[in-house]
Design goal:
The complex is a heterodimer of chains A (261) and B (287).
Chain A: H1 2-34, H2 40-44, H3 49-80, H4 84-98, H5 101-112, H6 119-122, H7 133-157, H8 161-169, H9 174-185, H10 187-202, H11 206-211, H12 222-232, H13 234-259
Helix pairs in contact in A: 1-13, 3-7, 3-10, 4-7, 5-7, 7-10, 8-9, 10-13, 12-13
Chain B: H1 15-52, E1 70-77, H2 81-94, E2 98-105, H3 107-115, E3 122-124, E4 141-154, E5 174-178, H4 183-195, E6 200-205, H5 208-216, E7 222-226, H6 227-232, E8 238-241, E9 249-256, H7 261-271, H8 273-280
Parallel strand pairs in B: 1-2, 1-3, 5-6, 5-7
Antiparallel strand pairs in B: 3-9, 4-7, 4-8, 4-9
The chains are: A mainly alpha (261), B alpha/beta (287).
Chain lengths: 261, 287
């Protein structure tokens, strides 16, 4: 009786668990099966791929640097403050995280577009953001920054608050404390946050195509190229997808210490 | 019913844990059932998929000719959005038993979707060239129903001062085109080649409506779209004609992918005088 009950609950949990696993794994396997491995090198040598690869690498790198320079201080403020406003700021930060990226793209257009909130004041100076590489970086930063800030904030909250008190009594400024104590201690958190944000930026599609458009060498990143190539030559799209899959697995390797114990 | 069983505060009696376990087991079983149901539903909906690109007949073909029933799935080029919305409305009003489901996108995307098994009864494309990659085994019948020419769309304020196609050669004019893979992009390239113009292209959008939207938002100074898109956009954009010696004309084919009675009726309606008049009222030319 007891054995039968245990068996029944095993099945009740095991079946959905197996389905969940299959739902996630089968598409990846399907992609690998459809790949023409011999063609991948020549597919990746297609004239459109190199500019897209270069653009994706530069924009995601700039995005990562922006996250590091702007996101780290924000994470620190969020981590040390228990003010009620902090939780509001944190909630606000998670909005881009759950927002459909295409909505983010529309919002960016309403901000930086020629008639946008900020864009209309830039236009008289001849500065136009949409359809430029800057727009790609803005779109990627918009979707990636929250991942970075929340990851680093989590790491900073794990620090012993006495460290900061001691540093303060020894006369260290906030900046000096962060440089010599705080940041070195959360370095793994920063690395993990960067990898996560970078991977998210690399995969960005919706906000980019809405806000930055699609032009080879200027705003056409790898995911946009996959979309366009699927209509021209699906095999090239599959080859690029495999490359992006490999990159994702690589990033997962970097994160292994954090998530895959 | 109290929420107690889901979280027993304290072990009250030996019976309590068991009474707590039963609902949990029930929840687990319900989740499993739901998951299985979803999976089965997923498999079920993929069945028409396999029959659409093969030889089977999706939908109900047993309905008599007098009272049509069923669903007609229409995939149409983005430029047909407004005209097919109207056709759907008129056809459904005349045939209350039939539901017309429409999906719009670039012709290249739609053909790709059908080749990958998207369930479709009818596909209407911008230009015959777009139909070439279509799996011919699925095609039952092809007929031309409209023509369209290119036109330049500019924002009503016309920030780039575009009054002719030659103005698109100015480096200061930001031009948005369709991607090279979609019909309107190919047609635009052909037109620029004929006119010997190299425009300052800032973006190549995934379909003609996305291209037009950049002008509607006044983010671009000009876009090369179809005449029908300029008509459909009404006051949101201003059209600048492209002279016929440079222009590219496209013939729109409607391709039937099903022998279902409702599908045949929909195509017949589209090709009827009334259907063609509806399409032409949105700026398309006669086939």
């Amino acid at each position: 009786m007891r054995y039968a009950g245990r068996w029944r609950s095993r099945v009740a949990l095991g079946v959905p668990a197996a389905l969940a696993l299959l739902l996630l794994v089968v598409p990846l396997v399907a992609l690998l099966l459809r790949a023409d491995w011999a063609r991948i090198p020549s597919d990746l040598a297609t004239p459109t791929v190199l500019p897209a690869l270069r653009l994706s690498l530069t924009t995601t790198s700039v995005t990562a640097v922006l996250c590091l320079l702007l996101g780290t201080p924000l994470a620190w403020f969020l981590a040390r403050s228990d003010h009620r406003a902090t939780s509001w700021v944190r909630a606000l930060l998670t909005v881009p995280l759950v927002l459909p990226p295409v909505v983010g793209g529309v919002a960016l257009l309403m901000t930086w577009g020629r008639n946008g909130l900020i864009g209309q004041h830039l236009a008289p100076f001849g500065i136009q953001i949409p359809f430029t590489t800057v727009a790609v970086v803005l779109a990627e930063t918009f979707v990636a920054m929250p991942y970075y800030v929340l990851a680093v904030e989590g790491a900073m909250r794990g620090l012993d608050p006495r460290l900061e008190s001691v540093a303060r009594t020894l006369g260290a400024s906030d900046l000096r404390y962060l440089r010599t104590v705080g940041i070195p201690l959360v370095l793994p958190g920063i690395a993990g946050g960067l990898a996560l944000a970078w991977a998210r930026a690399l995969g960005e599609f919706g906000a980019t195509i809405t806000f930055a458009g699609n032009f080879p060498g200027r705003t056409q990143t790898l995911p946009l190229l996959v979309y366009v190539e699927l209509e021209r030559d699906p095999q090239v799209a599959i080859s690029i997808s495999i490359m992006l899959l490999a990159v994702s697995v690589l990033v997962l390797g970097v994160l292994r210490g954090r998530w895959l114990r | 019913m109290s929420a107690g069983p889901s979280r027993p505060a304290q072990p009250r009696s030996p019976r309590s844990p068991r009474s707590a376990r039963t609902p949990r087991g029930a929840v687990a079983a319900a989740v499993a059932t739901l998951a299985t149901a979803l999976l089965v539903a997923g498999c079920g909906s993929s069945n028409p998929t396999t029959s659409a690109d093969g030889t089977g007949q999706p939908g109900k073909s047993g309905a008599s000719a007098a009272t049509l029933e069923g669903t007609v799935t229409v995939l149409a080029a983005a430029s047909l959005t407004e005209s097919f919305d109207q056709l759907k409305k008129d056809f459904e009003a005349a045939n209350p038993g039939v539901t017309v489901e429409t999906s719009y996108g670039s012709s290249a995307t739609l053909v790709q979707q059908v080749d990958n098994g998207a369930p479709a009864s009818v596909i209407a494309l911008a230009g015959t060239a777009a139909a070439e990659p279509l799996d011919q085994a699925a095609v039952k019948d092809t007929q031309s129903f409209a023509t369209n020419v290119l036109e330049i769309a500019v924002p009503p304020s016309n920030p780039g001062a575009v009054t002719s196609i030659n103005d698109l050669a100015k480096p200061s004019v930001k031009v948005v085109l369709c991607a090279d893979t979609v019909p309107c992009g190919k047609a635009a390239q052909a037109t620029f080649k004929k006119a010997r113009i190299v425009p300052n292209v800032v973006s190549k959008e995934v379909d003609v409506k996305a291209t037009l939207s950049k002008v509607k938002l006044a983010e671009a100074d000009a876009a090369v779209v179809y005449h029908s898109d300029v008509v459909a956009a009404k006051d949101a954009v201003t059209g600048v004609e492209i002279p016929s010696q440079f222009n590219t004309s496209l013939s729109y084919p409607v391709i039937r992918l099903s022998d279902d009675a409702a599908t045949e009726a929909f195509v017949a309606y589209l090709l009827s005088a009334q259907g063609l008049a509806t399409v032409q009222s949105f700026g398309f030319g006669a086939p």
